[in-house]
Amino acid sequence: MSKVRLEQRDAVSEIVLDAPKLNLFDLALVADLEQVLEDVRARAEAGETRAVLVRAEGSVFCGGVDVHEFRGLGQAAGAQLMARFLGLGALLESLPVPTVTAVHALNLTIGMEIALATDLLWAAEEASFGLVEPTVGLTPGAGGTQRLVARAGVARAAEFVLTGDIYPAREMYEWGVVNRLRPAATLLEDVRAFADRLAAGPTKAAAAGKALLKAARDHGTAVADARTPEVTGRVFATEDLPAGIESLLTNGPRKAVFRGR
User: Fold this and answer.
1) Fewer CB near the terminus (10 Å): N or C of the chain?
2) Is residue 260 part of a domain?
3) Which residues in the chain land under pLDDT 50?
4) Where are the transmembrane segments (predicted)?
5) Does residue 113 sit in the same domain as residue 22?
6) What is the pLDDT of residue 259?
7) CB burial readout 147-161, b (16+ within 10 A) else e
8) Residue 256 falls within a domain, yes or no?
9) Cis, bond preceding 3 (omega within 30 deg of 0)
């Protein structure tokens, strides 16, 4: 039975971690997630998926990696495993549609790193986060360190990565890591409504925006500026832009119906 399932709600693909009790990442879950991400990519490229929501079942979002996967590994095998973990975040980041994670409870190590690889991160007020790898003699290897730097800055990321402490969602919100806080009872309903809103937007324009956000994060403002004319120029070849302009002129603001083309 798959430990990750894909649920399609209209134009929103929901990627659901479902490996009771702790949603621990072992190689079987990694393989399932890789397959689901490839499926979502194909749906996005076909225009069937226009937004992605990552969530989890159970009393925790993710308890981290099953440490049995680390036992007996030497340097080369350890590096190979970390490269595979890192690839999960890269796959998520490369999706050409908006992505959001909903964290309802405790989220540790690779679960947090996966969440950081989505465009937006929502959390329950009762949730908590930790990159606790130092407690077993390791350091985060699935992209969490660098993506936490991008969201919270080097100083705060250093405290997070070097201590292995667990931090409440409220503090993560204050640091700029979490975009929105919601009560646990309404988190899923609220984030689904938000994902629906993203899916109804101009998908090609969103992809262009994501490309420039990533360019600015990875290479700085000058590189993003240099890429902007080409990236934004492609949006003028879409169907959504002229439809949006005509709707604005005819019906007023925020009434356009976009088709993601």
Assistant:
1) N
2) no
3) none
4) none
5) yes
6) 93
7) bbbbbbeeebbeebb
8) no
9) no
